[in-house]
Design goal:
Blueprint: H1 2-17, H2 20-26, H3 37-50, H4 52-61, H5 70-76, H6 88-99, E1 104-107, E2 113-114, E3 118-125, E4 130-136, H7 140-161, H8 163-167, H9 170-185, H10 187-200, E5 207-208, E6 212-217, E7 221-225, E8 229-231, H11 240-261, E9 263-265, E10 273-276, E11 281-283, E12 289-291, H12 294-308, H13 312-322, H14 331-341, H15 355-368, H16 375-394, H17 400-406, H18 408-419, H19 422-452, H20 465-496, H21 501-524
Helix pairs in contact: 1-3, 1-7, 3-4, 3-5, 4-9, 7-9, 11-12, 11-16, 12-13, 12-17, 13-14, 14-15, 15-16, 20-21
Length: 529
């Protein structure tokens, strides 16, 4: 508890130095202020200063254009997850403790890459194979646990006091962060993720995933095939047709992962995609793997198809079916805005649009109309946005919407084939027919209750929170007015009898202060006096 308090105070200090009130005003959480580059940069630097958990939080927030302005999203996308390296003595001790002393012929003491969770070193197995060794930083688990504890408490407090926080699902955001960061801390999970994605892209001849070197895998140490490659940049030097094929296969692979498999590489930024010397793309670093339940996957696949075919009504209906809505949700207004914005993404190449931009716009529109999208929607949007940014570097003329539509028929055939599999078909039929078999018994029970006069009907009122808040405000103001009047009367009586005059003066001053405060609150309240 003492450590948590100390950490909370440190976070508060950094937040205050970064101008938290200004940031909250610029993102629209408290007040309404124009977002600025300086505010966004200060927010990013504060997250970097706070370390691993907050860097991961910033990366997750960068997938929430419904929550943050564009300038903040752009700044958070540049978060630097890079820290000074851990001493090689500590790294070597971890490797020897987990794998033993006879696995490597040599390990380069200079790290190949350093990050807040792990650092990577080149190595040579005793068999002569060149590999890389990824080692978790000592002490990082305790640090993350402490930060998650602080964030959970903060999210619970904020969600209990703010309807906006409930709409933005801040508690679900922290839960999502916890799931992701725990995945990244466990290299056994990462090894499994790596092999899973490798199996999903094996049909793409221009894309591959480095092999996991088993049995050299533990929770803290992961050994992988070494791949020599460079980041994808505009000066890649590839022939136009080769670059076109690479971009098409790369973007297609990510769309297929989402809509067909429901499992996708959730962090395909430029540092995690390498262009090899033989003209292929190597996908690396699978600490973050997105997973979708079957119903959400199917809904997202139909949504992407509706986006590709410019069907605004279907887009709006599918988003609402995936979301949380209540009496405050304005579905008609949402549909109107979708009809207005959707056509701008059609018949344009990657150089003219960002494929993830359409999903980001839909997120913002949903929030404006009080429709709460699931966090998985934001993560899919971020994944496709990062994938199209890499594809754009390879081939700016690639049309992502046309590519999605080209694959639509094949995706629908795969989906139909799955639904007709005997196991799935019979399970679906059973779940649909089982309630019907219980219907006669339930009807008989209701009729019996009516006949005996014991039928009870309960009505749960909804949408009364605003009325309740108004009644509480009225009661508070009436009570405060009575207190002010009583203070004035009692103060006057005390002064009149010439005893304890100072008590009367204090009471009068207190009544004046309370009266001024009440007038200020009344003036600030919308409506006429």
């Amino acid at each position: 508890r003492l450590d948590r308090t100390r950490r909370a105070l440190q976070v508060t200090k950094v937040a205050r130095e970064a101008g938290l009130r200004r940031v909250l005003a610029e993102i629209g959480a408290v007040g309404n202020r124009q977002a600025t580059r300086e505010g966004a940069r200060g927010f990013r630097e504060a997250l970097e200063q706070l370390g691993t958990t907050y860097i991961k939080l910033g990366q997750l927030l960068s997938s929430r254009p419904d929550l943050l302005p564009d300038i903040y999203i752009e700044e958070l996308s540049q978060l630097v997850d890079q820290v000074p390296p851990v001493s090689f003595v500590d790294i070597d001790a971890t490797i020897r403790a987990d794998l033993g002393d006879d696995v490597f012929a040599s390990i380069d003491p200079e790290p190949l890459a350093t990050a807040s969770i792990a650092q990577t070193h080149r190595a040579l197995l005793t068999s002569g194979r060149e590999v890389v060794v990824k080692v978790r930083r000592p002490g990082i688990v305790d640090e993350v646990e402490l930060d998650l504890d602080v964030l959970r408490s903060t999210a619970r407090l904020v969600a209990g006091r703010s309807e906006t926080a409930q709409l933005l699902q801040v508690e679900a955001l922290v839960d999502e962060l916890e799931v992701h960061i725990r995945q990244e801390l466990d290299f056994v999970e990462e090894a499994y993720n790596t092999e899973l994605i490798a199996s999903l892209v094996e049909d793409y001849e221009l894309i591959f995933v480095p092999q996991v070197i088993r049995p050299h895998v533990t929770e803290r140490v992961l050994v992988l095939e070494r791949v020599d490659g460079e980041k994808v940049t505009e000066g890649h030097g590839l022939a136009p047709q080769v670059a076109h094929d690479l971009a098409r296969q790369f973007f297609s692979a990510y769309v297929r992962q989402v809509v067909v498999e429901g499992v996708y590489h959730a962090d395909p930024h430029a540092g995690n995609v390498l262009l090899t010397r033989d003209g292929r793309l190597a996908l690396i670093d699978f600490g973050l793997l997105g997973r979708l339940d079957d119903d959400t996957r199917r809904g997202l696949s139909l949504l992407l198809l509706a986006l590709a075919q410019n069907r605004a009504d279907d887009v709006a209906d599918l988003i609402v079916s995936l979301s949380l809505s209540d009496l405050k949700s304005n579905e008609a207004g949402f549909l109107h805005d979708v009809r207005r914005k959707l056509p701008r993404f059609h018949w344009r190449p990657l150089s003219g649009i960002r494929a993830g931009e359409s999903l980001a716009d839909l997120q913002r529109l949903a929030l404006q109309h009080a429709i709460a999208l699931p966090t998985s929607f934001a993560l899919v949007g971020k994944t496709l946005a990062q994938a199209d940014s890499i594809a754009r570097v390879l081939d700016p003329e690639l049309d992502p919407i046309a590519l999605i539509e080209d694959e639509a028929v094949e995706v629908m055939l795969i989906e139909a084939e799955r639904r007709l599999e005997p196991n799935r078909l019979f399970a679906y039929l059973y779940t649909q027919l089982d309630p019907l078999t219980r219907l006669p018994r339930r009807l008989g029970h209701v009729l019996a209750e009516i006949e005996q006069g014991g039928l009870k009907i309960g009505v749960q009122p909804t949408g009364l929170s605003e009325l309740e808040a108004n009644l509480r405000s009225i009661a508070n103001r009436v009570g405060a007015a009575i207190i002010v009047a009583a203070l004035l009367l009692s103060s006057a009586i005390i002064v009149r009898v010439h005893r304890f005059e100072w008590v009367g003066v204090v009471g009068y001053a207190l009544a004046v202060v309370l009266g001024i405060y009440m007038m200020w609150k009344i003036i600030r309240t919308p409506g006429e006096l």
